[in-house]
């Protein structure tokens, strides 16, 4: 699946490597100029400074050596934020509960469906707690069917127009639906519970408060009993600097377990992943690389760093 984003990474890396070649060939290669190149590539101030300092200290003998040093040090910076859901789930307490958060259009439901399929050999239950967007219930139902997962959803809708039957614009409280889903999961011995939530912008305090309630419902339901809860923020990789604002806003509402970056097959702004990890110290659990049910890759710091500074198309695939 990495080949789906390799082309995008290569397109961005080619220009970056050429700029580094120009920087190294200048009469005086100033550290500040290298920092500026990395900042332009969305690496963020902390990572740009750390990488530039490392390269200057190592005194590279040619520009290809400088690129190699950048790859090496970047991999080291990213390695602590490389996280794999499969590995964590295999050794965690059941039930394994994942709540997917994010703004409208980030692709939360799609990511949830891919992970439901990935864990199809477990007893997976999806909870359709997006009771705000018309069509969200049906969308998750389709993904659950494809992944052969069980689902808890609003059962009383006869038409889409019935969805908006209260002044608040929703037919059922998301917290209540989550509680119902947890009961269903306990009754049916589900060991994986995936919870979809409504896309929301930070200025919608009512929707942000719903997330707090969902979190309270889960923690109160299980109390001191054994369970594992992950709150994962799904980001649209094509939105660039807006991802920083989103992480900052959601982090103020709930403790985030980590990030999933979606639509990585459609962006050349991969440097933002570097900036996000160094700014928020949150792991990247994976990346969505297409609309297919298997279009998912675990984040790999070594491969990502290699391709981000690639000088030629890799034969890895």
TrEMBL record:
SMART domains noted in UniProt: SRP54 (SM00962)
One of the GO biological process terms: SRP-dependent cotranslational protein targeting to membrane
Keywords associated with the record: GTP-binding, Membrane, Nucleotide-binding, Receptor
UniProt GO molecular function: GTP binding; GTPase activity; signal recognition particle binding
Every SRP54-type proteins GTP-binding domain range: 95-310
Similarity section: Belongs to the GTP-binding SRP family.
Protein's name in the database: Signal recognition particle receptor FtsY
């Amino acid at each position: 699946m990495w080949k789906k984003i390799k082309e995008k990474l290569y397109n961005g890396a080619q220009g970056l490597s050429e700029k580094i070649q120009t920087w190294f060939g200048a009469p005086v290669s100033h550290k500040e100029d290298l920092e500026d190149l990395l900042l332009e590539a969305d690496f963020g101030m902390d990572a740009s400074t750390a990488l530039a300092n490392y390269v200057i200290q190592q005194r590279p003998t040619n520009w290809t050596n400088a690129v190699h040093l950048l790859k090496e040090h970047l991999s080291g910076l990213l390695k602590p934020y490389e996280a794999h859901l499969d590995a964590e789930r295999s050794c965690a307490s059941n039930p394994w509960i994942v709540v997917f958060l994010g703004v409208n259009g980030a692709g939360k439901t799609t990511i949830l469906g891919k992970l439901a399929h990935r864990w199809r050999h477990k007893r997976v239950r999806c909870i359709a707690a997006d009771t705000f967007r018309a069509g969200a219930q049906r969308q998750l139902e389709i993904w659950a069917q494809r992944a052969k997962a069980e689902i808890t959803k609003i059962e009383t809708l006869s038409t889409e127009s019935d969805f908006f039957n209260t002044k608040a614009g929703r037919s059922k409280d998301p917290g209540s639906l989550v509680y119902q889903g947890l009961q269903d999961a306990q009754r049916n011995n589900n060991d994986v519970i995936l919870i979809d939530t409504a896309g929301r912008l930070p200025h919608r305090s009512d929707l942000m408060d719903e997330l707090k309630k969902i979190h309270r419902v889960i923690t109160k339901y299980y109390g001191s009993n054994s369970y594992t809860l992950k709150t994962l923020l799904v980001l649209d990789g094509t939105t660039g600097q807006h991802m920083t604002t989103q992480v900052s806003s959601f982090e103020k509402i709930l403790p985030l377990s980590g990030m999933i970056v979606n639509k990585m097959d459609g962006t050349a702004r991969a440097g933002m992943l570097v900036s996000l990890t160094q700014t928020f110290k949150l792991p990247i659990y994976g990346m969505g690389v297409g609309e297919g049910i298997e279009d998912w890759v675990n984040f790999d710091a070594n491969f990502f760093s290699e391709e981000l500074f690639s000088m030629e198309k890799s034969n890895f695939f």
